[in-house]
Amino acid sequence: MALDSKSDGEKLNFKVIGTRPLRPDGIDKVTGRARFGADMSAPGMLVGLVLRSPHAHARIKSIDTSAAEALTGVHAVVTRADFGAVENEATADVLDNCMAGDKALYDGHAVAAVAATSGKIAKQALKLIEIDYEPLPHVTDVDAAMQPDAPSLHDGRANETVPEGMSPNVMARHEFGHGDIEAGLAQADRVLERTYRTEATHQGYIEPHACLASMGPDGQADLWCCTQGHYMVRNTCAEILGIEQGQLRVTASEIGGGFGGKTTVFLEPVALKLAQKSGRPVKMVMSRAEVLRATGPTASSSIDVRIGMTKDGRITAGFAELRYQGGAYPGSPVDMGSMSAFAPYDLENVKTVGWDVVTNRPKQAAYRAPGAPMAAFAVESAIDELAKGFGLDPLEVRLKNAAREGTRASYGPTYPAIGLEATLRKAKDHPHWSAPLGPNQGRGVACGFWFNFGGDTCVSLNITPDGTVTLSEGNPDIGGSRASMSMMAAEELGIPYDKVRTVIADTGSLGQNEVTDGSRVTFAVGLATIEAARAAKREMCKRAAMVWGIDEEAVVWEDGAAKPAGPNAGDHEPMSLAEIAAIASNTGGPIAGHFEVNAEGAGVSFATHMVDTEVDPDTGAVKILRYTVFQDAGKAVHPSYVEGQFQGGAVQGIGWALNEEYIYGEDGILQNPGFLDYRIPVASDLPMIDTVILEIPNPGHPYGVRGVGETSIVPPLAAVANAVSEAAGVRMTALPMSPPRVLAAIQSENG
Amino acid sequence: MVQVKVFGSLTSATDGRSEVNIDASTLRELLDGLAEQYPAIKPQLERGISVAIDGKVYNDSWFTPIHEDSEVVLLARLKGG
Questions:
Q1: What fold characterizes domain A9-34+454-599?
Q2: What is the pLDDT of residues A225-281, one digit of tens each?
Q3: Residue of A3, A205, A451 to mutate when probing chain B, most B C-beta within 10 A
Q4: Which of B8, B75, B80 faces A519 most closely, judged by CB atoms?
Q5: pLDDT at A751
Q6: How confident is the model at residue A603, as a pLDDT?
Q7: For A386-411, how does the pLDDT look when each residue is reduced to its tens digit (9 = 90+)?
Q8: Quick one: DSSP state of residue A612?
Q9: Hey, what CATH class is B2-76 in?
Q10: What share of chain B is helix, strand, coil (3-state, %, to 5)?
Q11: Residues of A with CB below 8 A from B75's CB?
C-alpha cells in the first residue's frame, strides 16, 4: 500500500514526540527482572544440547545414537533423519543449517541433539553418539573458493545468472549500473584501481541464542525464544516440522541484542523436535563458542574498485566487482552491497558486479544494512585516496558528487528528496572538522547509504476501563520500540506518555508481523500505531456523540478529549478519554483501535561519519580520539534512542574496522570462538560518540519518521580506514586494521 | 504500457534489453506481464524481487497503482538486518 496519503502534516507542534522519557524496560533490565531467552522454564523441562561437527567439511557416513538413547535420563535424541523433506529451497537450507544432512559443511555444524534431565547427562549423551565422518577438502576464503578447482560444497546449485565454467561454489551473479564505464574512465585525470578485503564479523549480541519448546500429543506447540521476529520463527518452524502455523504459538522473550543475527532460526526447530519426541518441554541455550561457531556472522569480502576522477574532484566513472562469501549456503548480501556501493553519488557511468560464493563457514546471517558496509569501505576509501591525491578537501569532493533529488541512483531509480547533502554540510560546518590534529593523528570521513523497508504490520490499541491504554505490537523491542510506540500513541491520543503501556504480543494475538529488521519498526509499526490510535479516537468521538445526542461528525478530538466541533454542535463539556472509557460498557462495549498494513515505500537513508585516530608507529595500535555521526532521522521520536542507534552502529563499525575477525586455521577450524580472542570494542576503547540528528521529514510517515537502525554501520569502516591511513602515512586496504597489520603496513611503506 | 528498467544481471532474461515495455496498471499486472513476455525472468521472480515505482520501493503489494508515465525499476529483493 502506498503511504503518501497518510502524510498529513497535521502534527507540527509535538508534545510527546521529540522528548526523552524514561525507557519502559530500564528498571527490568537493571534489576534482573527482565526475562531473556534463557530465563524461561517449565515443569518437567529437559535440557537440550547439540553435537557439532569437528570438521570443516565431511561426509557423514553414519550416526549411531543407540548408546546415547540407552543412557538413563536421556529422553530423546534427534538427527536429520527425524526431519522430513522441505520443499522450499531457502527453508531447506535453514533446516540443513540447523541439522546437517549428508555432509557437515563447517566447523560447528549441528549433527545431532539430545534432551536429558540434566545438562550433565546431556553432555555425557553427546559423547556416546558415534559418527563416522569422511573428511573432505575444505575452503574458507572467498577468492580461493572461486577458483575452478576449489573444493566444492554443493554441485549444481548455481543459479541461471552464473556463466558456465565457474567454480561450483559461485551461486549467483548480480549486476547493476548505467552508462559507459570505459568512456567515463577515459575522461578522468586519474583512475585508481585497488583491491579491498574485509573479514567476517559477528553481530556480537551479548545474549546467546536460547529457547524453550513444548509440544503436546495433540500437536499444539508453544515456543519461547529470543528472536528479532517470532512470526518468522513460527512460520519457519511450522514449515520445517510440517505442522500448521496456527498450532504453534511463539512468544518472544526480552532480547539482548540481535543486529540482524536473530532474523533466522538455529535452535528452535531442534528444540521443538526434541519436545515432540520426548513429550517434555525442552530448553536449549547456546554457549558463546556455539554462537560464534554456528550462528551467522556476516560475509567476508574481496572487492576490486576502479574509479576515475578529474583533478577538480568530479567522479567520471565508478566500477566495483564484489565477491562475498556467505558461508555454506547461497544468499550472501552481495546483491545489497552491489546496489548500495555507489548509492551516495550522482554518477553518469557506474557499474557493479557481485558474486555470491559459498565456503566452509557458518551460514551468514544479516548484520545491520547487510552487505553495505564492506562495499562502502571499498568505494569510500578509493574516493578518499583520489581526493587527497589531488590535494582536495574530501568533504568538498563528496559534496561535488553527492546524489540529490532527481539524481538517478546507481541502482536504478530516481531519488526523491534525500538528506545526504544536508549531512555533508552539517559535517563541514561542525567544529570537529576544523579541530587541530597532533602528530601520528589522522581524520577520516565517509558517507553511507541504506534502503530501509516496511513490511507486514499489525497492531492493536486497547482503551482500558480506567482510561489507560495498552498497545500490542508484534515486533521484539531491540531498539526502543516500546518507548517510541507509546510516545506515538500518546501524541495521537493527547494523553501523557506514562498512560500508555506497549507490550510485545505472541503470535496468537496479532496478525502476521515482519521481522524487526530493515530499520522498519519505528517507521512501519509507528505508522500502524498512529492509525490504530486514530481508529480509537473515531470510536470515542462516536461514544461522546451518543451521550450528547448529536451526530458523530459533529465531534472532534482535541487534547485528549472529545469536544463538540463548533457552536452548532451544542454546548457540551469536553469528555476526556478516561471519562469515555469509564462508560464504555454503557455505550457499546470495549473501545479499541486496530491497524493492519503492508507498509511499503519506506524512504532511503544517508549518513556522514567523521573520526580522528592516533596510530602508535611502534606497535601499530590505533586509538579512536573523536567520532561524530551526522544522520537524517526524518523525525526523532525519542532522540536518546536515535542517538543510541547512531552510536551503536559507529561502535560496531569501529570493531569491524580495527579488531574483529573470524580467524580460521589451515584445518578450517575457527581459532577464536570466544570474546577474549574475538575482540569487540568495549567502553574503555572508545571516546564519547557524538551525534548530530538531522530531521528532514519522511513524506511516507504521518510524523515524518525515517528508519535509523542500520545506516549508521555503513560509513565507519571507511571513515576509520581513511583516518588510520592518514595517521599511519600508508593506505590501508584490508580490515581489520589490527596492530600487526598496521605495523606491517608502516614498516613496508618505510622500507 | 509502462517502461520498466531491468538491472544488468537480469537482462539475460529480457533478450539483453535494459528497458522493456509491459502493459500494466498495477504491480501484479507488471509481475504477471514480465513473466508472460519474458519467461526466463521467472526464477528471479520466484526468488523475490523489489520494484521501485516513482522512487519508492515495493515488495509485495499487488495492487499498487502504476501509471503510464511512472518510473518503474526492478531491483534485487531488499534484505535488512
A1: Aldehyde Oxidoreductase; domain 4 (3.30.365)
A2: 999 999 999 999 999 999 999 999 999 999 999 999 999 999 999 999 999 999 999
A3: A451
A4: B80
A5: 82
A6: 86
A7: 999 999 999 999 999 999 999 999 99
A8: E
A9: alpha beta
A10: 30, 30, 40
A11: 339, 411-413
- Of A178, A353, A366, which is closest to B81 when you measure between CB atoms? A366
**Chain B hits for A514, Cβ within 8 Å:** none
**What number is the average pLDDT over the span A184-198?**
98
**The pLDDT of residue A6 is above 70:** no
ipTM of the complex: 0.97
Interface of B with A (CB under 8 A): 5, 7-9, 12-13, 18, 40, 43, 47, 52, 55-61, 64-65, 71, 73-81
Across the interface, whether the CB atoms of A259 and B81 are under 8 A apart is answered yes
Residue A201 has pLDDT above 60, yes or no: yes
pLDDT tens column, A674-697: 999 999 999 999 999 999 999 999
Q: Where are the domains of chain A?
A: 9-34+454-599, 138-415
Q: Are the beta carbons of B80 and A518 separated by less than 8 Å?
A: yes
CA distance A733 to A378: 8
pLDDT band at A5 (very low <50, low <70, confident <90, very high): very low
Cell of A695: 530531521
Q: Which of residues 572-601 of A touch B (CB under 8 A)?
A: 598, 600-601
Residue A187 burial (10 A CB sphere; 0-12, 13-18, 19+): middle
What's the average model confidence in pLDDT over A43-61?
Answer: 98
Q: Which three cell numbers stand for residue A339?
A: 546496489
Beta strand B56-58 with B2-5: parallel, antiparallel or unpaired? Answer: unpaired
Within 8 A by CB and 6+ apart from A586, the residues are: none
- Condensed to tens digits (0 to 9), the pLDDT of residues A75-95 reads 999 999 999 999 999 999 999
Angstrom distance (rounded) from CA A359 to CA A350: 29
Picking from A252, A267, A327, A269, the residue whose alpha carbon sits closest to that of residue A297 is A327
Enumerate residues 201 to 260 of chain A having a beta carbon within 8 A of any beta carbon in chain B: 203, 259-260
Q: What is the mean pLDDT of residues B25-38?
A: 97
Q: From the CA of A427, how many Å to the nearest CA of chain B? A: 27
In CATH terms, the fold of domain A138-415 is Aldehyde Oxidoreductase; domain 4 (3.30.365)
Residue numbers in A near B77 (CB within 8 A)? 335
